[in-house]
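Predict both folds.
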Amino acid sequence: MKLPVYLYGHPVLRRKSEDVSPEYPELEKLVADMFETMYASEGVGLAAPQIGRNDRIVVIDADPVGEQFPECKGRRFVLINPEIEILDGEKVTRAEGCLSVPGVSENVARVEHIRLSWLDEKMHPRQEELSGFLARIVQHECDHLEGTLYIDRISPIRKQLIKGKLNSIVTGKTYCDYPVRYAPKKLK
C-alpha cells in the first residue's frame, strides 16, 4: 500500500526514532509498504519518519543509480536499527534531494567510507563497509532516524537562499506527484 510521504515542516521528521524490537507488529507488511511508497515516489531510499513513524527502519534500493554509481548496482537493503561508523574523515560534496523536501536539491558534504551495522528484515545482524554514493544514501536515510534533514547540513547562506522554497512546502503550496502529508496548520 502506498503511504503518504511526510513533508518538511511536519514535526515527525524532527523526532529521534526508537529502536525496533523483534516483536514489532506487522514488520513485513510495513517494509513492503515502505518499498512500494519509495518506488511510487521514484526515490532510492525511505526512512520510517518519512511515513510518519519514528521507528529505526530504512529501506533502500540504490540500483536505479547503478549505471552512474557502480557501487549501487543491485544494492537493496532493509535496515533495522542501523548504526554508522565513519571510516574516512575526508568529505566529498555532492547534490542531494529528498522526498520530504520536494523541489529542492543542495550540495552536501559527507564522508565516502563507512561501516554499517544493522539488523535485516529477518532480524539477523549484519555488518558491511560501504563507499561512494551508496555510503551517501545510507547516511542520508540514517540522518532521518536522528531527526536530521540534509538541509540541516548546508551553509546558513544556502539555507537562506532556499527559504522561499521551504516556506512553500510548509504552507502546502508545493505540488508532488506522490501522496504527501503536509505539516499540521498552526492554530491562531
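Second protein follows, with its predicted C-alpha cells after the sequence.
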Amino acid sequence: MTYTQLAIFGVVCAIILDLFITERQLLRRRVFWTSYGIILLFQLLTNWWLTSRNIVMYHPDAIIGIRIASAPVEDLLFGFALVLGTLTSWIRLGVSDKQH
C-alpha cells in the first residue's frame, strides 16, 4: 500500500471507530473541532520543520504530491486519524470520566 492509501485507511478506521463502534460521536462535537484546530496548527509547524529541512523525506511515488507547509497532505490525514482515534479510545475507556 502507498502512504496515501494507508492515510485514507487510517481516517476511515478512525471515523468508523468514533461513529459506529464506540459511538462517542466526537466528530459531531464543536469541542473536538476546536481542539483539532489547535493541534493542527502545531502539526503544520512540526511538519514544516521536518520536511523543509529534509529530516523527513517521502518517495514521490508513495504520495499524491499535494503539500501543505512543505509536508504531504497525507501527514494531515494520519494526524487526524491519530487524534480522533486516540480521543475516541480515551473517552471510551473512561479515562476522562475517572478524573472528575
